[in-house]
Design a protein that fits this description.
heterodimer, A: alpha+beta, 2 domains, two-stranded antiparallel ribbon, B: 6 helices, globular, disordered N terminus
Chain lengths: 400, 240
């Protein structure tokens, strides 16, 4: 026989690739068991993907209006929590903003919710109604600028094409018959056009009316009360500086927010005040916990079932670190084999869900990366927990 | 530390003692044991259950630290080498009562595990050496079979191939024939003895199986932690 390349008394680090290969052979030997374990990881991945997807869809849809408006600074009462839970503040307070030099213009937005009667079925459905000054261009929704001139008339309404189908085939009727009457909040309005905005978790459909019509729909609301103040600045103005100056002149009950802060304010409502954000976070944690238990069980059983073999290999000269590498490699295999099919599967699931709830579900690379990191962490923790069992593999036992 | 100028003495124990437990529960397992095994020797250690055979083997195999006395294995001083016990283990070929092969590896892959441990990173070379070794134990045709597809005797021979493929300087065997029938047991022992005689290593075999005693260069008997030696042809005593 020939001699080895290296002497047994020369310390040699066993390449990590050998540990990875051993892990793969060990996991793939019992295929049914392996695929059962992978299915567990896939299940955890899907849970995490979907919960993150729902949560992101919630935030993105809830802040769609705030993210789209072109005002640089927004004013609202400190008691206002979300776009559909607004507390009005005095109109004269809004106009006080015009005293700041770099403020070019201010406009008021009014928000309410009222029933819309489906023009075909007659069934009522609650819509979110925005009351705006049609002469102010701060809502760059697709189709709105074309339809805005018609909005100057009283008792007309623009309909969001992305509203749920339960609101009726409005666009089709408009195309076939032209302007037609609908019942909103018990009053007859004419639908004169459509625009594209998108629904949220709090609104199945959206309408835009002019401010005069808005107060006819909501007689309890006072024209002297503004729900949201939109401030447009002069070109080149320093937003932070103007925000500071506005805070200096506004009463303490007025929030003065940049657009980014306004978006975060809306998110904070869903994340902190409603239980929905917590529920989705909890769903992510549950998915990770389920996956952690499954992966831990598989890794633990693999170690437990091969305790004598590992002890024998230790007696031959293998070090503990090698078996740690084997277990960590198993975790890596679970991540890779479980994550990527889940990614593909969830790409399809997102489309199915989007078609059902009419809220955009976008499986972005960032979401995939976040899920990958969470699943990797889950598998890594499972491996670290399972590795403790390796200490029991004592080479002395093979002589008992 | 290795001392290449030393004579080829593979095991040298002097006044080696070992106990389990503490205080009133102390159980003295080895009592001032002396032992020498040279290259080219095939030594059998026999004794009743609980006599200290396995404990002695585990000390020689660097599987537990010594407590009292002196022990050198392959010229490593076991009292000084606690930090590199795994390196001492790599000098030794272990044959256990149970084969303890990895079921998810083929016979050849199991044998290759030893070579991978030693840093033999040439896949072709590893494969060739493993097949050579399996050929020596008569299992070349079974190289691609998994342990569950082999008989008990065949598995034990694969385990021997795994233990010997790196040409260890010392072979330690613990009841290597216990799970084998007479014919398979004889084949295994003949194989071990051939390795000793052809490769120049030494072997210490613990066994109850008197059918294999005639293969030994010397037979040591251990009882209550004390070794009783027998004179051998070469003139020196293996047991002290």
């Amino acid at each position: 026989m020939r001699r080895q390349n290296s002497s047994p008394n020369t310390p040699t680090a066993i390449p990590a690739g050998y540990a990875f290969r051993l892990a793969w052979r060990q996991l793939s030997y019992q295929k049914v068991r392996f695929f059962t374990a992978v299915a567990g990881v896939v299940f955890a991945c899907i849970l995490v993907f979907m919960q993150i997807g729902f949560k992101t869809a919630l935030f993105e849809s809830a802040t769609l209006l705030q993210r789209t408006m072109t005002g640089q600074i927004y004013l609202s009462d400190v008691q206002s929590e979300a776009i559909w839970r607004l507390v009005p503040f005095p109109r004269k307070t809004l106009y006080r903003a015009l005293s700041v030099p770099d403020v070019q213009d201010v406009s008021a937005m009014y928000v309410g919710q009222a029933p819309w009667k489906n023009p075909v079925t007659g069934v009522n459905r609650t819509a979110l109604i925005l009351g705006i000054d049609p002469n102010v261009d701060v809502f760059p929704f697709e189709g709105l600028s074309e339809a805005a001139p018609k909005l100057r008339m009283r008792n007309v309404v623009l309909f969001d094409e992305f509203s749920r189908p339960e609101f009726g085939p409005v666009k089709q009727i408009l195309a076939e018959k032209g302007e037609f009457p609908v019942e909103v909040a018990g009053r007859n309005l004419d639908v004169v056009g459509t625009y594209k905005m998108g629904i949220t978790f709090s609104a199945d459909g959206n309408l835009i009316v002019n401010d005069t019509t808005f107060f006819e729909l909501f007689p309890a609301k006072s024209p002297q009360g503004v729900d949201v103040g939109i401030v447009k600045l002069a070109p080149g103005a320093d937003i932070q500086q103007v925000q500071k100056e506005l805070r200096d002149i506004m009463p303490v009950n007025i929030k003065v927010m940049t657009r980014e802060e306004y978006v975060e304010d809306e998110k904070a409502y869903w994340n902190n005040i409603t239980p929905i954000g917590y529920i989705f976070n909890f769903g992510v944690i549950m998915g990770l916990f389920v996956g952690l238990v499954i992966v831990y069980q598989v890794l633990y059983n693999d170690i437990n079932n091969h305790m004598h073999e590992y002890a024998t290999l230790k007696a031959m000269g293998y070090e503990d670190s090698y078996f740690v590498k084997v277990v960590l490699s198993s975790a890596v295999i679970f991540v890779v084999v479980g994550f990527f099919p889940s990614w593909l599967l969830c790409s399809a699931l997102y489309k199915v869900v989007q078609a059902s709830i009419f809220i955009e579900m976008n499986l972005s690379f960032e979401k995939a990366l976040l899920t990958f990191c969470l699943i990797s962490g889950m598998c890594f923790i499972s491996a670290l927990l399972a590795v403790r069992k390796l200490k029991v593999a004592n080479p002395v036992d093979v002589f008992q | 530390m290795m001392d290449f100028s030393s004579p080829p003495c593979l095991i040298e124990a002097e006044n080696l003692s070992f106990h389990y437990g503490e205080g009133d529960l102390v159980q003295q397992v080895l009592k001032n044991v002396g032992l020498r095994v040279m290259s080219g020797e095939f030594i059998i250690l026999a004794g009743p259950s609980g006599s200290g055979k396995s404990t002695l083997l585990s000390l020689i195999g660097a599987l537990r630290p010594i407590q009292k006395g002196k022990l050198q294995v392959c010229q490593y001083d076991m009292g000084q080498s606690k930090a590199s016990m795994h390196l001492i283990r790599r000098q030794i070929g272990y044959v256990f009562q149970q084969h303890n092969l990895l079921n998810f590896l083929t016979a050849r892959q199991n044998v290759e595990m030893t070579l991978e441990m030693l840093g033999d990173d040439d896949e072709f070379s590893r494969k060739e050496k493993s097949l050579d070794m399996l050929d020596k134990v008569g299992l070349k045709k079974e190289a691609n079979k998994y342990p569950p597809e082999l008989s008990v005797g065949q598995r034990q021979r694969v385990a021997i191939a795994r233990s010997l493929v790196h040409q260890p300087r010392l072979i330690l065997a613990d009841e290597p024939t216990a799970s084998l029938d007479g014919k398979s047991g004889a084949q295994v022992v003949e194989l071990l003895r051939d390795m000793v005689k052809t490769a120049g290593c030494g072997a210490l075999v613990v066994t109850h199986d008197e059918r294999i005693f005639h293969y030994a260069d010397a037979i040591l008997r251990i009882e209550d932690g004390v070794i009783y030696g027998e004179a051998r042809e070469g003139g020196h005593n293996v047991g002290v």
